[in-house]
Amino acid sequence: MYFLHKRCYRNAVKPVCEQKSLLPLNIQPQTEKCSFPVFFLFLVVEQVKHTPTCVLPLRCRKENLENIPALAENPIKNQIIEAFFDKRNQHGNEVGSFQEIGFEQFVMVMSHFRPPNLKTTKEEKQEMRKEKLRFLFNMHDTDGDGIITLQEYRKVVEELLSNSGAMDQDAAHEIADAAMLEVASTNVPQMSPEDHYEGITFQHFEQILKDLEMETRMFIRFLDVDTTTMHCGKATS
Amino acid sequence: MGRGGSVRFWIFGSMLLIGVWGQEPKSERHDEHGGGSNVSGISIVSLEWEYVEPPYLVALWILVCFLCKLVIEANHHVTEFIPESALLICSGFILGGMIWGADKVQTFRLTPYDFFHYFLPPIILDTGYSMPNKLFFTNLGGILIHAIIGTCWNAASLGLSLWGCQIGGAMGDLNVGLLQYLLFGSLIAAVDPVAVLAVFEQVHVNEVLFIMVFGESLLNDGVTVVLFNVFNAFVTLGGPRINAAEIIKGIISFFVVAFGGSLVGFVFGLLFALLSRCTKNIQIIEPGFLFILGYLAYLTAEMLSLSAILSIVFFGVCCQKYINANMDENSVRTMKCAVKVFANGAETMIFVFLGISAIDKSIWVWNTGFVLLTLLFILIYRFMGVFFLTWFMNLTRLVPIDYTDQVIMSYGGLRGAVAYGLAVMLDEAKIEEKKLMVSTTLIVVYFTVILQGVTMKPLVKWLKVKRAASAEKTLIEKVQNRAFEHILVAIEDISGQKGNNYLRNKWFKFEENWMSRILLRPSVRERQDKVFNVFHQLNLKDAMSYVVEGERRGSLEFIRNESAFVDFKKKFGEDMTMSMPDIMADMSDDRSAASSTRKESVPSVSLEVHEQAMRGTRAAEGLDSHHLLQQHLYKGRKQHRHRYSRSHFDINKDENEIQEIFQRTMKSRLESFKSGKMGVAPPKTITKHTRKEQQQKLQNKKSKSRLSGDEDFEFSEGDSASGYDTSFPVRGGYRPGAGIENPAFMPDVDLPLQIPPWLEDVDSVAPSQRAQVRLPWTPSNLRRLSPLRISTRSSDSFNLAEAPGDHQDDQLPPPPTPPPHRDGDVV
């Protein structure tokens, strides 16, 4: 299900479209450095698509995202960008990654950050929670084999801590190891020392984060737009 | 039985106290008169009751209140159903009754001056200092709405309805005008932080609900103060002279009072944070700054007629992060405990005195209509206000507050001592029905605190309100939270939108770049990381449970190498069973039986170990930890002497003295060992000795040897370090003879002696995987520690770092040489 913000359209997209210089025709994000907020970009394109003077819907490549200046300081930038191009995050059963994504794929990824509202039922909340967890899991599971191995997790922690100068790689590794052991000990309590814990499966991941309040954390709400959303497009399962 | 007995005892005790009070002043006066008559001679002992009376009474009252709490908390079956605050008020009733019975007049009551100047500040300081900042600020919007609009609504609706009822003739003939009703409404409108905290702390509702009610109760103080002052001024002015200008002034004064108070607190908080950067050299009084500056913030706000409560809350809120990071861990711990002591003490006193104040005939004026209507309106309007405001908030709230939570929020609108204090402060000259208002306020307070407090818990259970989740945060959750922050910010960046995460991120950046730079010590700034902190905490916990486990098993040594324990036992058995089988049997019993006594002796050691573990994780201090460890372990012998310094806790570090003490103990032990070996000391008597007696005996021996002073010490007398090392085998031999004085000292006799002992000690800080493997009953608890080991940082690199620079290797007596007692054993 797509959601567009009404006011977002009114306040942001329309003026952008009206400014000649920013019309999608002139942007050409595939080739040039795109510092233009991608969400707007897509909105513009989608809007234009329905008009007779429609150009081809724009596609977005990894470089476009990587060039966003605000992202530069983000320690887990790469993983987030990967997540947008990951086919697993498209609510389908596909595996692998896209070379470039369109608006549809973009919104699919964004939909993981839906906030719940008053009407959401318990089952829906559960489902949403699972989706969000799945998204997180996919972010950590870089090779897509369904298991977060120690190496993968170490990498995540390392990147997470990389911008706090105090900690070196060793400390990050220690923390990752400890977290891993934590998972292992909660999920396989009677593990004998000889056993090798291969990595975190999704079930384990779900289990260990079961107390984490996902609904209140993993959501995006934009300050400058109306939160009442306008549903458009086709509803996907 | 226990409860009944204790209550009886307590009543008896307080009767005694009352009796003392009842009589003492009179007898003193009598004495003085007597003393006055014969001024000649110097009286050797004179009672100066008048001289000490005020502080003495204060101290006695504090003691009595604390004893009340002690009795109440003695039995948890009661406090499970009735909240402590209610019980304290009830005990206040009893105490007040006794005073009334003795004096026929209520001599003690809660005066607003004492309440606002001495009792309230510590409680609010505690709440501010231990405020969950993130929770508080994320819910600030809702809290403010409830605190400002809700309180105004409560005050206005109550005042107006009561006025309407009076016009309707519901409560007889009262000389109260509309303004006075509004004044009354404003003083009783505010939810009381003390009462709320006391009740909600025991109920454990979910944290959002808690912070909503509690935050409201804290922040509505600004509103209450303003409303009270404004209406008080209006009452003084009289109805006709109030014009629009006055009302506007009132509204402006609200902003000034609330924001001014917060600003004062904020400034003091920053001041404190700055100050804490440079208190390293006066660590011993460091914690005192919290109280002094907090109190100053409170008084300053009071002086400027701003909201004092807001001031001290924000003082705590904004300094907590920086001071906790800047100050020494000991100081922080001290502050945390001291704040709680003061706050809890003050709270106890408040409730007891609220009870005592009631037993006074002179304050009671009864008007059934007024009292009942007030109670009714308070409840109804609270519910209405909360439901309406929450409905309004839920329109924009992401996670809506559901109806059960709203019910609890409404029901949790407890009124307390603040309302009473304000009511007592009313001017009787202006308000004729002051007494009625005071007594109504008291009734409301009792009704809300006792009745609503008691029913709160069942209600929470019955409505199945979401309880607080277990506070334990796992490491992976923390990592995940950290990831969330970044993901959300990244998504907002990508979509080019500004969300609340954007703002939060900006604030974090700002704080990191500016606030932290200015307010934190440079050395501390580097350690600021949440994930790392959790890691650190978990490690600490593991280390502690590890030590506890060690104590349970008797010795750290045995955890380290379980095989040694077994072997030791076996060997020990081989050696000893032949000579004294009785001891063997008794010893094994003794080990389990004496575990409790042992625990008393061990903690001094284990705490040190724990501290070492703590420091060990911090790489910088890690290097010399085994020296420290050894020294601290030695300290456990309790032979150290304190330097009687007011500013240092240091124990005696004089090498010579330590060496001497050491030799003496060694000698006494050797003696006892020898005697045990030779069978000089009859085994039966030894086994029958309790530990204390044994220690006593040891003391005697020590003193004897000190007297004799002969130096037939058999060991190589190197420096203190080598002395420690040689001591290990001896202790092993000593054990069968005279029992264990300190289990943590049990050496690993059967370790290959090539391993220098300190390396083993290091191991105890960061347990090896081997040790973990051998703790099958705590598989999950101890696993976290292993990474420390894996990283080869804790022990291995440690050794490497240690080896080249250390000259101790040379001084050490060659470890493989068999120690004397072993020879003895073999022979």
TrEMBL record, chain A:
It is found in: Cell projection, Lamellipodium; Cell projection, Ruffle membrane; Cytoplasm; Membrane. GO terms for biological process: cell differentiation. It comes from the Eukaryota. SMART domains: EFh (SM00054). Transmembrane segments: none annotated. Pfam families: EF-hand_6. It is a lipid-anchor. Belongs to the calcineurin regulatory subunit family. CHP subfamily. PANTHER family: CALCINEURIN B HOMOLOGOUS PROTEIN 3. This is Calcineurin B homologous protein 3. It comes from Nothobranchius furzeri. The gene is tesca.
Automatic annotation (TrEMBL), chain B:
Residues 64-462 form the Cation/H+ exchanger transmembrane domain. Pfam families: Na_H_Exchanger. It is a multi-pass membrane protein. One of its GO terms (cellular component) is recycling endosome membrane. It catalyses: Na(+)(in) + H(+)(out) = Na(+)(out) + H(+)(in). Signal peptide: none annotated. It comes from the Eukaryota. One of its GO terms (biological process) is regulation of intracellular pH. InterPro entries: Cation/H_exchanger_CPA1, Cation/H_exchanger_TM, Na/H_exchanger_3/5, NaH_exchanger. Residues 786-798 have a biased composition (Polar residues). Its main location: membrane. Keywords: Antiport, Cell membrane, Endosome, Ion transport, Membrane, Phosphoprotein, Signal, Sodium, Sodium transport, Transmembrane, Transmembrane helix, Transport. Residues 672-729, 786-827 are annotated as: Disordered. GO terms for molecular function: potassium:proton antiporter activity; sodium:proton antiporter activity. It is found in: Apical cell membrane; Early endosome membrane; Recycling endosome membrane. Belongs to the monovalent cation:proton antiporter 1 (CPA1) transporter (TC 2.A.36) family. Plasma membrane Na(+)/H(+) antiporter. Exchanges intracellular H(+) ions for extracellular Na(+) in 1:1 stoichiometry, playing a key role in salt and fluid absorption and pH homeostasis. Major apical Na(+)/H(+) exchanger in kidney and intestine playing an important role in renal and intestine Na(+) absorption and blood pressure regulation. This is Sodium/hydrogen exchanger. The gene is SLC9A3.
